[in-house]
Write a structure and sequence with these properties.
Layout (H helix, E strand, L loop, with lengths): L6 H5 L9 H10 E6 L2 E4 L7 E7 L2 E7 L2 E8 L5 E3 L15 E4 L3 E7 H11 L1 H71 L5 H21 L6 H17 L5 H10 L4 H14 L5 H39 L7 E3 L1 H11 L4 E2 L6 E6 L7 E3 L1 H18 L5 E10 L2 E8 L29 H12 L3 E7 L2 E9 L11
Parallel strand pairs: 10-11, 11-13
Antiparallel strand pairs: 1-8, 2-7, 3-6, 3-8, 4-5, 4-7, 9-12, 13-14, 14-16, 15-16
C-alpha cells in the first residue's frame, strides 16, 4: 500500500486545510502515500480508479489532440490534484480525462475512487449536489439545446432545399403543359398539310426522315455551347434566308432552329428535298411542321434536365443527411463538403452572382476517411453558416484541403468578413457563448463542432482571425476511432 498517511501532513495542503481531525483520519484510513518515479501516473481514456493529490515533486498534465499529446499544465504546487476527481457523480463512466506524468520522484496521497466518492457524499452532500448539478445539468443543457440547434439548422437547410426543388419542379410542370400544346399543334399541322394537299406522301416521308435527323441533332446541341455573339450571328443568317424564301414568321423560326443546333446547310437541304419530292409542297408548311417537332424535343430536354436536377438534389440531400447509412464509415471529405454547400442553395455560388462566391482549393490526393460523415456535415454546416452571417451574404468563402501526413488531413474554411474581435476569440468554443443578438443564437454551434472534431474524431479545431480574414481549421485523423472505442 505504500507509505503510511499522516493526518498533519494532509492538513498542510490547501485542499485539506479546513477539514476536521475526523475527516482527515477518514482519508488516511482509506488512502495511502505513494512515491512515483519519473513516468506516467495515469493515462487519458483509461478507467479512473484513483484520486491523486501531490505532496511534493512535479507533474505534467496533457491531453491528446490529433493524436499528439498537448501539455496543458506543468506544476510543482503542493496540493494539486488529478485523476478521478468527479467520481462522486453517479452513473458517470469513469475515465481519466487527461494524462499525468511526473518529471522527478514525486509523492502523492492516493485515494481509491470509490472511497473518494463515498467521502465526498458523506462529508459534503450539499457541495456534491451543487457540483453534480453544475456538471450534469450543463451536459444536459448542451444536449437539449444542441438538438434544437441541429433542428434549427435542418429547418433552414430544408427551406433552401425546398426552394431549389421548386424551380425544377415548376419548370417540369410548365414544360409538360407546353409539350401537350405543341403535340396538339403538330398533329393539327400534319392533318392540315395532308388535307389541303400542301404536301404529298413522298414529301412526308422525306420530312419524317428529316425529323429523325433533327431529333439526333437536338440531342447533340445540348453539348455544344455557343457564345451570345455566335448565337446572334447564326440567328441573323437563318432569319435572312427564311425571309428571302418568303417564310412567314421566319425570325421566330430562326431562334428555334439555332437552339436546336441547325444551320444554313440544313435549311438548304430541306428546301432541296421537299422540292425534289413534290413540287406542290410548300417550304412554309414543311418548316412549320419541323419547328413543332423541334419545340417538342426541346421541351422534352427541359423535362429531362429538370428531372435530373431533382434527382441530383435529392441524392445530395441523402448524402448530406447520411440517411440509411451506417454512422461510422469511409467517406470522401470533398463529397461531404459538396453536399453541405448544396444545402445552402442560393446563398452561395461559383461566381458570387447569387450571394457569396465559393472558391475551392482541393488536394486531389486526399484519402477517404474512416469517420462519422453525418457529424462532419454538421461541422461544415455550423462553420459555413457562421461565415455567411459574418459576411452578411456578400464576400468570398474559400475551402482548402490538404494532407498533413499519412495519418492526418486538414480542412480550412476561410471567409473575408470583418474578423473575430480579439477580446472574444478565446471564448468562441465555450458552450452558450455567442456574439449574436439575444434570441438569435444558442452559442452551441461551435461547441458542437468542437466536440464532434476533437472528442468524437480525436482531431483538432481552432481558429485564426484578423480583420478581413477568418479561418476555421479542422484537422482529422485518416482513421477516427470506431464506435466501440468511443466512450459515451
Amino acid at each position: 500500500m505504500g507509505e503510511k498517511c499522516v493526518r498533519e501532513e494532509l492538513r498542510t495542503l490547501f485542499l485539506f486545510e479546513s477539514l476536521t481531525d475526523t475527516q482527515l483520519d477518514t482519508l488516511c484510513a482509506n488512502g495511502h502515500i505513494a512515491t512515483f518515479e519519473p513516468g506516467p501516473v495515469c493515462t487519458e481514456g483509461e478507467p479512473a480508479t484513483c484520486f491523486y493529490v501531490m505532496l511534493d515533486g512535479e507533474l505534467v498534465m496533457s491531453q491528446k489532440s490529433s493524436g499528439v499529446d498537448i501539455e496543458t499544465n506543468r506544476t510543482s504546487m503542493r496540493g494539486v490534484y488529478c485523476g478521478a476527481w468527479s467520481a462522486y457523480i453517479p452513473d458517470e463512466q469513469r475515465v481519466y480525462e487527461a494524462s499525468v506524468r511526473v518529471t522527478k520522484p514525486s509523492r502523492f496521497f492516493v485515494l481509491d475512487a470509490n472511497a473518494y466518492a463515498d467521502f465526498m457524499r458523506a462529508e459534503f452532500p450539499m457541495a456534491v449536489h451543487l457540483l453534480e448539478g453544475h456538471k450534469v445539468g450543463g451536459m444536459r443543457r448542451r444536449q437539449i439545446i444542441g438538438q434544437r440547434e441541429k433542428l434549427l439548422a435542418l429547418g433552414q437547410l430544408s427551406a433552401g432545399l425546398t426552394h431549389q426543388l421548386n424551380n425544377p419542379a415548376a419548370a417540369t410542370a410548365r414544360a409538360v403543359a407546353d409539350l401537350r400544346e405543341r403535340i396538339g399543334q403538330m398533329r393539327h399541322k400534319l392533318l392540315t398539310m395532308l388535307g389541303e394537299g400542301l404536301i404529298s406522301q413522298g414529301a412526308l416521308q422525306v420530312l419524317v426522315r428529316a425529323q429523325r435527323n433533327v431529333t439526333d441533332q437536338v440531342a447533340k446541341a445540348r453539348s455544344i455551347e455557343l457564345s451570345a455573339m455566335e448565337t446572334s450571328d447564326r440567328e441573323d443568317l437563318l432569319g435572312e434566308w427564311l425571309e428571302d424564301h418568303d417564310v412567314e414568321n421566319g425570325w421566330d423560326y430562326a431562334s428555334t432552329f439555332v437552339e436546336a443546333g441547325l444551320d444554313l446547310d440544313w435549311l438548304e437541304g430541306i428546301a432541296v428535298a421537299i422540292g425534289d419530292s413534290d413540287g406542290t409542297a410548300t417550304l412554309q408548311a414543311a418548316l412549320g411542321w419541323m419547328k413543332y417537332t423541334i419545340d417538342t424535343e426541346l421541351l422534352m430536354n427541359e423535362i429531362a434536365e429538370a428531372s435530373k436536377r431533382i434527382s441530383t438534389l435529392l441524392a445530395d440531400a441523402k448524402q448530406y443527411s447520411q440517411m440509411d447509412r451506417a454512422p461510422y464509415q469511409s467517406a470522401d471529405v470533398h463529397e461531404l463538403i459538396r453536399s453541405t454547400f448544396m444545402m445552402f442553395g442560393d446563398r452561395v455560388s461559383k461566381d458570387g452572382s447569387n450571394g457569396v462566391k465559393v472558391v475551392k482549393e482541393y488536394d486531389p490526393a486526399l484519402p477517404e476517411l474512416e469517420c462519422y460523415p453525418a457529424d462532419l456535415n454538421q461541422v461544415w454546416t455550423n462553420i459555413i453558416d457562421n461565415a455567411l452571417q459574418a459576411m452578411n451574404g456578400r464576400g468570398i468563402l474559400t475551402v482548402r484541403t490538404k494532407r498533413v501526413d499519412n495519418e492526418t488531413v486538414q480542412v480550412e474554411i476561410n471567409d473575408n468578413g470583418p474578423g473575430i474581435p480579439a477580446d472574444v476569440i478565446e471564448q468562441i468554443f465555450t458552450p452558450f457563448f455567442t456574439t449574436k443578438p439575444f434570441g438569435e443564437g444558442t452559442g452551441l454551434g461551435l461547441d458542437l463542432a468542437w466536440r464532434i472534431v476533437c472528442e468524437k474524431h480525436h482531431g483538432n479545431l481552432y481558429v485564426e482571425s484578423e480583420p478581413g480574414s477568418t479561418s476555421f481549421i479542422v484537422t482529422l485523423p485518416v482513421h477516427a476511432p470506431p464506435p466501440d472505442e468511443n466512450p459515451s
